[in-house]
Design goal:
The chain has 310 residues and is an alpha/beta fold. Helix content is 33%, strand content 21%. The chain has 2 domains: 74 residues; 213 residues, Metallo-beta-lactamase, Chain A (4-Layer Sandwich), CATH 3.60.15.10. The protein is built from 5 helices and 14 strands. An 8-stranded mixed beta sheet has the order 6-7-8-9-10-11-14-12. It has a 6-stranded mixed beta sheet with strand order 5-4-3-2-1-13, with no helix packed on it. The longest helix is centred in the first third of the chain and has 72 residues. The radius of gyration is 39 Å and the shape is globular. It starts with a helix and ends in an 8-residue tail after the last strand.
Amino acid sequence: MKRILVAAILGAAFILGGCRMTAAHTDGTSAEATVAGTEVRTDNTTAAAVTEAALTTAAATTAATEATTAATTAEPEITLPLTENTSGKVQIQTVSNSTFILYNSYIITSAEGETIIVDPTEMPAKDLVDLNPAAIVNTQSAHDHNDQDFSDSYDCQKLPYVAGEINTDDFHIYTVASSHMGDTISEKPDNYILVIEVDGLRIAHMGDVGQKTLTEEQLEAIGPIDIAFTQFDNSASMMNLKNMKGFNLIEQLNPKIVIPTHYADADIPVFDERYGGMTEFDNVMTVSAEDLPGDTLNVYHITNTHFYGE
């Protein structure tokens, strides 16, 4: 009986001790949970602050990115060529709206204000700007030398890649047959060199001549040239820096001023080395016979930032 009572007492003590241990363990867990909860609450507060700061930074970055994107993708302002020449000299402008063929097309205006268009490409519509040309002339029929819709919109003299000559009040213009590729000039030439005389200047637009050399007959027909528009790099006429055809042709012609049409960035160091670099003009240059440099083969680059909308 005593043993039973002792056992009962010991059992009860064990149960109570176990309960206390469990309670202690539970309390410990609760304490840990409480501390952990505090830490979680503290971490949540910090995380919220960090998150808010991150969102603020992200919002600022997004706004900056959107602003940059808007500035980058915004359509440029309409930029039109000049319709008057008040310089008292011959005025030469780029004009094409093309983003690919920037330097084939030119407006040439005499000191008295008469204008011709040379090799029009992606031109401004007449209702946007009336260039009022006295003549439109082309070296060839390819799309990067001929905007037929533009030409058709004007009732003026035209010399469209054919043998011939025209005279206006201030200009005398004639063509010299050449070859777009190779040295054989066909019976129906695929490229014409334009020779333009105005205000004491003799100007040539070589189109996409792809010959290795100009013939003696061509050189005689062209005559001495002050300003030449010509190409230096064009796969369509097999002209590149390796074969140097463009450089060889222009050195045969030997003008005072060279204005590149088709060319590559790799050509620029050669311009520097051979011709003393490149003089740049913003969209328009003016020149008279008195302004011509004393030496030959000076490279002038007229930029083209014209934009006429889509």
